[in-house]
């Protein structure tokens, strides 16, 4: 079993609390890591270390090229240990091994390399004012940044924010989810080995209570980034209001997959299945609401249900598995309860939604498809965060658009049509931030990613991430001698 400790001010230190948590392998139900829960005292120590490092240390005063060299060293260390880290992340999250090895972990390496170079391209601007003055801008760090990340893709999600915050010159307190802390905990060892200045990166472990709450409530944090559920995001905003602290929030989703009457059904089926069930359905962009035109609804629905029934649920290390386990026993139970409640409200369960008969260990569930779901029911409006899909029938395109936009969330979506121009026109009317047209939405580090409505505040990716983790300072310089009014000079 792995013993995990905090990393504060360049040192590995055990949390002061005696309360202990365990990381459970979702596919075997075995304990694979243990750690003491960080108290408010531990959080105070981490924030203090980050503050001293920012105010007195070298990190914000290094050139961007010097900071970039450290990010490349972190990327090198991750890349050298990629198979091992992928194994740990698969064991920690239950995500498919092939996805961890070829997707999530290489993406973390890419994030550090990308921002190492993007930081060098992040320039200010010059604005002439007549012939007498010029104003010019440059970007300065926000200061002390707290980053709280989820358990689905823990290292990848942490790295996109950590790398951007670091290249901008900030110091950081990073708190990973208590459900999947292993790979993020190894970052402490990496930054120590490469000689990153003390206090620049600090890592604390613990649950939402008390560790997360202590971070959210802390008054000496200049920016708090939270990736996770919408309710906690609202708590972040509430506690930030007292100091007007900046907040960057990537929150929940209930993403629509819209299949118009002229769509290529085979292509739409492939895309809808990927959107709904990749990452075990435990991803904020999951296409959990499928809206299909009535003229093709029967054909599409029957084929979607049949394909879902054939999905291979099993060991994430098995190359033939298509869906692994849910993150925890309690999370699986919540998913099963949501399906039962939907049935009680009149929905029909057409596929899955049960524990597989041949899975004696692990938190597995067969992917579920429901029809007859009321658009205002909990299954249609709340994020289930699992392999559960509701199919809705649209009378026409106007009705499809109304169903797609009838959500408190607005993170992602897809549109399928033989006509690219029709799909593009439809997509531009959707109130979501990230849309795939005749394809599942493909995220790229160079592109902006952010949600509408209650799916978040702020945008990450490329230039936009650096805007989040910096402040713009404007400086005014005279070009020519200019006679200012001489207040008080007359006698």
TrEMBL record:
GO molecular function: oxidoreductase activity, acting on the aldehyde or oxo group of donors, NAD or NADP as acceptor
Domain Aldehyde dehydrogenase: 14-474
rRNA-binding keyword on record: no
Xref: Pfam families: Aldedh
Name of this protein: Aldehyde dehydrogenase
Keyword Glycosyltransferase annotated: no
Source species: Xenorhabdus thuongxuanensis
Keywords for the protein's UniProt record, in alphabetical order: Oxidoreductase
Native organism taxonomy: Bacteria, Pseudomonadati, Pseudomonadota, Gammaproteobacteria, Enterobacterales
Active site: 250
PROSITE patterns assigned to the protein according to its UniProt record, in alphabetical order: ALDEHYDE_DEHYDR_CYS, ALDEHYDE_DEHYDR_GLU
Domain of life: Bacteria
PANTHER family associated with the record: ALDEHYDE DEHYDROGENASE-RELATED
Family: Belongs to the aldehyde dehydrogenase family.
InterPro entries: Ald_DH/histidinol_DH, Ald_DH_C, Ald_DH_CS_CYS, Ald_DH_CS_GLU, Ald_DH_N, Aldehyde_DH_dom
